[in-house]
Amino acid sequence: xxxxxxxxxxxxxxxxxxxxIKYFSQRSAxxxxxxxxxxxxxxxxxxxxxxxxxxxxxxxDVQIASLISHTMGTIPMGSDDRTGFPKLSVFNKxxxxxxxxxxxxxxxxxxxxxLSFLNTENAINVEKSxxxxxxxxxxxxxxxxxxxxxxxxxxxxxxTPGAERMNAYREKAIALSANLADVLxxxxxxxxxxxxxxxxxxxxxxxxxxRDVAKQYPNGNYHAVFSGAYQMQSxxxxxxxxxxxxTITDIERMLYANEFRNFVLPTGWxxxxxxDQLTIFSAVGSKVTIDIDQYSALLKELTFVYKTVRMFSExxxxxxxxxxxxxxxxxxxxxxxxxxxxxxxxxxxxxxxVDKTMQSAYEQLNGLYGRIACEVLVxxxxxxxxxxxxxxxxxxxxxxxxxxxxxxxxYLQYDSKAERQTLCDELEQVVSAEIKVHCIAHPEFDIRxxxxxxxxxxxxxxxDFAADSQATALFQVFxxxxxxLVLAVIFGSxxxxxxxxxxxxxxxxxxxARRTH
Length: 517
Prior knowledge:
three-stranded antiparallel β-sheet, alpha/beta, nine-stranded mixed β-sheet, Alkaline Phosphatase, subunit A, 2 domains
């Protein structure tokens, strides 16, 4: 296993020089098309008193994990550049980190809707450190603080050399780096409350405690759910997270509850349910009607946030997470916005519903915890490629491609990989001048070895993850040793005060001789 990892690392290093672009061996595409249309940056919004004095305007995606770990007081993650980060002491760090992700939303989309929680004037431009990067790969980068050529999640899916499609965070398609949830879970031995949810299993997996870490703490306080065919499902199997599971029928019942409507509807909005048709009325009189079954994923995401926040009102919720002394992390990612028609009235309505839901969650959790840090990452997603470019790729390499022609990634059939360079050269001749064609020279392994390795490898046995675990253990020593010493000094001082004010007892502060006055 170690020898295979070493070969992969050497291969990646060699190919970076050849292609002038970073990639992950045997997961990244054989040909990568670099075009300006695929280079849209994301936006970051910071909420909470902890960020009140932060004046950042630009940052890299790998700095977000560094910012959150700095704010929460965990072991450092991500970039070493912490310029402009808030100055915090041990006594004013937030108890909860609340993270929201919006997929398929650009800065132009935000400006078209009337939003109160997301003010574009305070947005931070997030520069991507890897190309190409869809929203799943970006969310994995944000959560781990390293780029896809390190953590291995190169997209929502990829093709193996054997033409097997791998979906991110499913079965063998795992990340090779610890994320923020892993660090909190290992640092506090599973006591930190970790909640991750989305309609997308890949989005949930990016911010959730990874399965191999979860196995170390089977009774840990972590939860991860995504939208299944009929109800919300747990990322860890059928026997977990039962309290988060609900169906469309449950959502229909909830639509009649004033508490739910106040949570998700902006001021002055109302709804009307007739059969499977839900009509939403805005404060200015405009309306949109949707089929509940067709847009169940969006309704599930809104309902999941509402139900999660509502659970905190229960006695001893989540093992008393609010009252204990360990930090917690909750992550919600709205994935259904990606794929909606941005010119439709529904898209604008959906954005405003998400905006109000995020605001309600933030305000109520802030009231419960007293001090939280909140980040909102708005990701534009991967835009559709120009049809002319798709046609050019199909004309040059159509019979050699796995599946249909696509961009910016092109996967070649196993028998056609030897012609990779020739196909790259031909593509370079037909595409426009602003487009670059990168030929990724993956090391040629026996395909049977690759399949065996993919099915049996364990990312958390890698040297990088072992180093992360050692760092976590070291962090625990440095965290708790000073606390124990401080508590010992305080206890000793209180003990001295208690006995020193009792003049009727013999102590070091009073003479043992009998008093005469």
